[in-house]
Specification:
Helix content: 25-40%
Distance between the termini: 21 Å
Order of helices and strands: HEHHEHEEEHEH
Structural class: alpha/beta
Largest sheet: 4 strands, parallel
CATH architecture: Alpha-Beta Barrel
CATH superfamily: Glycosidases
Number of strands: 6
Strand order of the largest sheet: 1-2-3-6
Number of domains: 1
Mean pLDDT: 93
Shape: globular
Low-confidence stretches: 1-8
Strand content: 5-15%
Number of helices: 6
Radius of gyration: 17 Å
Length: 205
């Protein structure tokens, strides 16, 4: 396995990141069927109802995790960051927290698990992108398009527990992760206090 920041001390993490330099960043999910932007096109280019139903037809039978990892390696990349969940709320792993996930598609395979395994086999550090905001989840206060609408009965504390439970799954079942790349923290429902709590929570240690 490649030398990873997940298994070294704090001082070496930044050094690893600086020296790695070149990596692959992949946003991918059912929205590929529509050919529009992930997350942001929900409720904009595509109605939320149609967008949320795309997973029922998502069956990427040509997906080859090892081929992706080999491509990254042949290009000289040191790490791969993959979308576990974008702002649309769809989960590319076998999460127990929601049915809106890759195991409920016709494809029915755990893409995160396959990619993590393939990357390690090729000496590529596997990393996870995870959106803090979730415009589909009823407890998250803001919705599509682009976080510009408000949910009728949000519950941010309950959503925060959902977020922590999902991160615990990723860290405990798919790690070690070289990087956990958060996005969506710029929205109003999130704040520094929640960020510090997420970082220090024993739930995701």
């Amino acid at each position: 396995m490649a030398d990873s920041p997940a298994v070294n001390g704090d001082a070496s993490r930044l050094k690893w990141w600086q020296e790695a330099r070149f990596g692959m960043f992949v946003h991918w999910g059912p929205v590929s069927l529509a050919g529009t932007e992930i997350g942001w096109s929900r409720g904009d280019n595509i109605s939320a109802e149609v967008y949320d139903g795309l997973y029922r037809r998502f069956n990427p039978t040509n997906f080859d995790a090892r081929a992706w990892a080999r491509l990254a390696k042949e290009a000289g990349m040191k790490y791969l960051v993959f979308t576990t969940k974008h702002h649309d709320g769809f989960c590319n792993w076998d999460t127990k927290q929601t049915d809106y996930n890759i195991l409920q598609t016709p494809f029915g395979r755990d893409v995160v698990k396959e990619l993590a395994t393939a990357c390690r086999a090729e000496g590529i550090t596997f990393c996870a992108y995870h959106s803090i905001c979730d415009w589909r989840h009823p407890d998250y206060p803001l919705g599509s398009p682009g976080g510009r609408t408000e949910k009728p009965q949000p519950n941010m504390d309950r959503y925060n527990a959902y977020l922590k439970s999902q991160l615990a799954e990723l860290l405990q079942n798919y790690g070690p992760l070289g990087i956990l790349w958060f996005d969506g923290e710029w929205e109003k429902p999130w704040n520094a206090q929640r960020g510090k709590d997420l970082h220090s929570s024993s739930t995701i240690e």
